[in-house]
């Protein structure tokens, strides 16, 4: 008998087959201001997503249900209030109430609130309580707002991509990537050990409708003791009315060959040990075990209610945590990289409740992997765990990584030395550190694996959950971007140093501007050509910033030519100290113009950097009495390209110059990015 709140689902409606959905994340914009609508759409269009816009509150519920929205941008301007003077707390309460209503209709939709009315930057408590995923105030400025929107979207897309390798695919890949022992008893032991650590609620069912093995997570989910489900009939887990779909699937494997049978994906209700019904989505994938056909059955809990709140809040914090680090890595100087990576590993291990997290890097010849970074709760691990692992390219474990697939490892005890060549030796090491299991996600660049991130579980009682795999893949993405960026920065740094070395001190004059002691136009031309070549080879972005001091003629007239010279020196020093990334290159372009090369930054990133620069100089408040603002300001023209043509140096400069002209034309003290639009 199914008891409790889910009874009403036992009407047959729950067993309907799920409709096919596109894998593109779906985004709904609930915003009345067309300018903000446009800003959001501009970021969404850059991602692999589908978006919808509504202007009317009545359409909200309908859209959420019909389109299975993954992410909702909800503006506080959407809340109807009697007049504009309404108390901010009343507005907040109304917003929280609306979010709670949305969560009832569409529990899985992530909600990001956009506030045009409040300048508060942290997430208001009542909205967090109601279940939002993030909160952006437009007061943070347009560029930072766009960057925040973009990183949320990137994470959403990464998550949806991670989902594709989740669950069944992962189980199948994990099982097939291991070389099975020959003897049947050994085979069963092997499957048992492997399946028990797999995340999600997994059951292996044979054609006689019997459970071969249930994993630990599934036992916990259904409230059964250790191995208590093994050998039981699967029908005992379903109410009779809802068993038909499972039963039909199992009959198929006795009648057809496995490749003729499709996977099954349907909703049903399972009965726990205590007799309670829990709505689940069932995924059935036909598979061969010990030479016999059967099914891998995964049960995904779909109890959509406020019960999910704790995990929702945890998920929200995780996303926030990754976002923060992703933003920090963008402008991080190379010498701070190790410190921040270690911080990321430690905080991530705490989040995940794991005892050890580490990054291994392959050497250039791919013959060995070396431990690059590690955080461990138990310092003893550092001594015992191998820092250098020999790589056997044919090893099954390495094959998984080389194909960019995540890997689940369980310890291998009592191994003979010669067997080690069949794997990376990682499983043996797990045994030596007494780990329960490890999740390993490859790090790759241009489809080449160069290392991996791994999490160990050493403490008993913690089991992998479905979200864990997704979370680790998202973390690996952030680490990957950071490592690749660091590599490029280092390469550039050495190129610049080499240039200086080659030309030596004797030609310092030829390369440095005598007044400001920063690179001169000639040096700039050389570096620009090198960076264009690199961006073309690496298919990466390159941005150029042309900065011009506003009303500098008047400055000279007011403070004299010497005063003008000192001012140029001050601006040059400010520019040099502001662009800290090793790749950034600042030069005097001529007269009162400076130029900055920003490799790897796209238009958005470059715009942010340029505007930060403009503001910094404005805030320095250098007196300029004959300027309308009474202080020194600069105007900046910007252009950005991806994978430029080798001969495009003059074109890039010309475009930056045109953008600079527009910045001046529009009133100075501003940044203008080059577009094809006429003035
Ligand atoms: N002190 C000093 N002045 C320089 C140097 N090189 C160029 N200048 C001066 O910079 C001034 C540039 O003036 P303009 O090109 O008219 O531009 P502006 O007055 O800044 O006007 P906008 O660019 O439209 O804001 C000229 O007066 C140049 O003499 C230099 O090395 N030292």
TrEMBL record:
SMART domains named in the record: GGDEF, PAS
Reactions listed under catalytic activity: 2 GTP = 3',3'-c-di-GMP + 2 diphosphate
Domain Response regulatory: 26-153
Domain of life, source organism: Bacteria
Class of enzymatic activity (EC top level): transferase
GO cellular component: plasma membrane
Keyword Kinase: yes
CDD domains (alphabetical): GGDEF, PAS, REC
Stretches assigned to the PAS domain: 187-257
Keywords: Kinase, Transferase
Protein name (record): diguanylate cyclase
Native organism: Aliikangiella marina
């Amino acid at each position: 008998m199914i008891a409790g709140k889910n009874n009403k689902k036992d009407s047959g409606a729950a067993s309907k087959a799920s409709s096919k959905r596109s894998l593109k994340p779906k985004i709904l914009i609930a915003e009345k201001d067309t300018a903000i609508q446009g800003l959001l759409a501009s970021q969404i269009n850059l991602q692999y997503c589908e978006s919808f816009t509504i202007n009317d509150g009545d359409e909200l519920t309908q859209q959420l249900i019909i389109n299975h929205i993954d992410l909702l941008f909800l503006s506080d301007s959407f809340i109807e209030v009697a007049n504009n003077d309404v108390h901010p707390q009343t507005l907040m309460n109304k917003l929280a109430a609306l979010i709670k209503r949305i969560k009832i209709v569409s529990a899985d939709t992530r909600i990001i609130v956009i506030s045009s009315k409040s300048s508060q930057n942290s997430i208001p408590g009542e909205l967090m309580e109601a279940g939002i995923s993030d909160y952006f105030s437009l007061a943070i400025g347009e560029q930072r707002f766009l960057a925040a929107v973009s990183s949320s979207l990137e994470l959403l897309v990464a998550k949806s991509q991670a989902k594709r390798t989740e669950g069944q695919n992962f189980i199948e890949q994990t099982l097939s990537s291991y070389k099975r022992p020959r003897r049947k008893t050994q085979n069963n032991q092997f499957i048992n050990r492997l399946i028990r650590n797999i995340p999600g609620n997994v059951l292996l069912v044979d054609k006689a409708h019997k459970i071969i093995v249930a994993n630990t997570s599934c036992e916990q989910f259904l409230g059964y003791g250790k191995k208590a489900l093994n050998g039981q009939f699967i029908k005992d887990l379903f109410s009779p009315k809802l068993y038909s779909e499972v039963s039909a699937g199992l009959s198929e494997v006795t009648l057809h060959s496995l490749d003729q049978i499709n996977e099954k994906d349907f909703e049903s209700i399972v009965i726990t040990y205590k007799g309670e019904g829990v709505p689940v989505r069932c995924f059935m994938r036909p598979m061969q075990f010990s030479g016999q056909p059967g099914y891998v059955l995964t049960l995904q809990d779909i109890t959509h209610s406020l019960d999910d709140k704790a995990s929702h809040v945890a998920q929200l914090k995780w996303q926030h945590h990754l976002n923060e680090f992703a933003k920090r890595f963008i402008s991080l100087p190379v010498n701070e990289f190790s410190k921040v990576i270690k911080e990321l590993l430690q905080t991530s291990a705490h989040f995940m409740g794991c005892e050890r997290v580490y990054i291994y890097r392959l050497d250039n010849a791919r013959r060995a992997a070396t431990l690059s970074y590690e955080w461990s709760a138990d310092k003893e691990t550092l001594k015992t765990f191998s820092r250098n692992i020999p790589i056997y390219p044919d090893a099954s474990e390495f094959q998984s990584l080389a194909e960019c697939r995540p890997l689940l490892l369980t310890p291998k005890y009592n191994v003979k030395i010669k067997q080690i060549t069949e794997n990376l030796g990682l499983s043996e090491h797990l045994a030596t550190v007494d780990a329960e299991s490890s999740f390993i996600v490859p790090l790759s660049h241009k489809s080449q694996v160069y290392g991996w991130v791994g999490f160990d579980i050493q403490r008993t009682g913690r089991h992998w959950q479905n979200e864990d795999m997704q979370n680790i893949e998202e973390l690996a993405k952030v680490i990957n971007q950071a490592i690749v960026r660091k590599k490029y920065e280092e390469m550039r740094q050495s190129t610049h140093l080499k240039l200086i070395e080659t030309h030596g001190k004797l030609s310092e004059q030829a390369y440095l501007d005598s007044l400001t002691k920063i690179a001169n136009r000639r040096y700039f031309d050389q570096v620009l050509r090198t960076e264009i070549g690199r961006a073309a080879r690496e298919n990466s972005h390159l941005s150029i910033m042309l900065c011009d001091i506003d009303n500098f003629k008047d400055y000279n007239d007011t403070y004299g030519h010497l005063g003008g010279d000192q001012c140029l020196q001050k601006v040059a020093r400010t520019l040099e100290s502001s662009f800290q990334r090793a790749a950034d290159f600042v030069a005097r372009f001529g007269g009162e113009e400076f130029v900055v090369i920003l490799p790897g930054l796209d238009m958005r990133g470059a715009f942010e950097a340029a505007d930060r620069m403009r503001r910094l100089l404005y805030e320095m408040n250098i007196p300029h009495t004959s300027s309308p603002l009474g202080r020194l300001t600069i105007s900046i023209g910007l252009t950005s390209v991806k994978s430029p043509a080798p001969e495009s140096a003059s074109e890039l400069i010309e475009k930056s110059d045109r953008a600079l002209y527009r910045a001046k034309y529009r009133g100075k003290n501003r940044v203008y990015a080059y577009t094809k639009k006429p003035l």
